[in-house]
Structures are given as structure tokens and as C-alpha cells.
Amino acid sequence: MTTTQSQDEMLVRLNPEGEIIGSVSRKEAHNDESIIHAAVLVMIFTHPEMDETIEGKVGIEQLAGWFTQRSWDKDKYPGAYSVTAAGHVAYREGANLQELLDETAHRETAEEVGLHGLDLELIGTEIVHAPGEETQLIAVYRAITDALPYIADNEVAEIQLENVNKMRELIDDREFTPFALVAMRMLGVLS
Length: 191
Prior knowledge:
Layout: E1 10-14, E2 20-25, H1 26-31, E3 36-46, E4 64-70, E5 81-82, E6 85-88, H2 97-113, E7 121-130, E8 134-144, E9 156-163, H3 164-173, H4 178-187
Parallel strand pairs: 3-8
Antiparallel strand pairs: 1-2, 1-3, 3-4, 3-6, 4-5, 4-9, 7-8
């Protein structure tokens, strides 16, 4: 498969405790499921009556979320559906993991769907093993905003807004990445 993604990009490599132990190329991380590398998944929600007082006062059932279809040029899960934005965490000598996760979440949200300066809330992290594929420590973030995302680069084929109940129905009808499914469970979209 031809991909527009650099297979030489150096990613954060982690041990099973989630500690940085060095770097690994994207190609190596994607071809050796014993290697744990880090990624972020960001879900952007909105509310029909969005205002400054809404944060923390509405249940997940009252929200709508933006989800995306991945580009057909992606090296993993081409054309599959995912959360609003996602991406690998690039390695940087001397940086701590939380700093890299936060930077990556903001960068991917800006690059993929054109949203800058959001108040992203870290929901949690989990190591997810996709048998025969790869293993990622995923950091799941969310934001509630009335800002409108748009397709900002070639990594996203489609973006769609659905209420949480409709999103649950779509999961049965469409292929989602295994990482997005775990993220949606962590966010309370799935049980």
C-alpha cells in the first residue's frame, strides 16, 4: 500500500508500565506488536444549547460528537472511522510523557480538523493491543465546544456530527479502529 506517512518518523517507545524507554520508527512499531508506542485520541463534543456554563453540567446522552473517517492513504486502518482527531506521539529527547501527550493532542486537533486552543481534558490512558497489528498506549482527551471542525489535511476523508445515541448505532454499521472503540468506551459513548 502506498502511504503519505513517513515510515521513518520516530515515535515514543514505552515499557508495559507506560514509561518512556526510547524511540521507535513508525514502520517498526506498526510491524511488531510487542512494541508499545503512544498515541492520542481526541473527541470533540458539542451541545445544542452551548454556552459558558455547560461544561460539566450535562450528561453524555445530551451531547453530539464529531467523528471522522480516516483517509484511504493511511498505512493502518485506511477508510475506518475514528474519533475527531488522533495521532502518534513523536519522540523528543528529554521530554516527559504527559508533556508529549498534551502537545500531540493539541497539534493533531489543529492539523486534522482545524481547531486551535481548545481546553482539552485528559480522560485517561490505556494500553490497547490490536492482535496481529500493533500495541498502543492511548491517551484519550475530550473537549466540549461550539467551534466547528473542518477537514484540514489529507489524513481525514470525512467528518460527521452525530448525537451520542446515533453514534452507538453507527458503530454496528461501520468499521472503527480498535483504538477508537476503546476511546469511546473510556468517554462513556459505549458501555
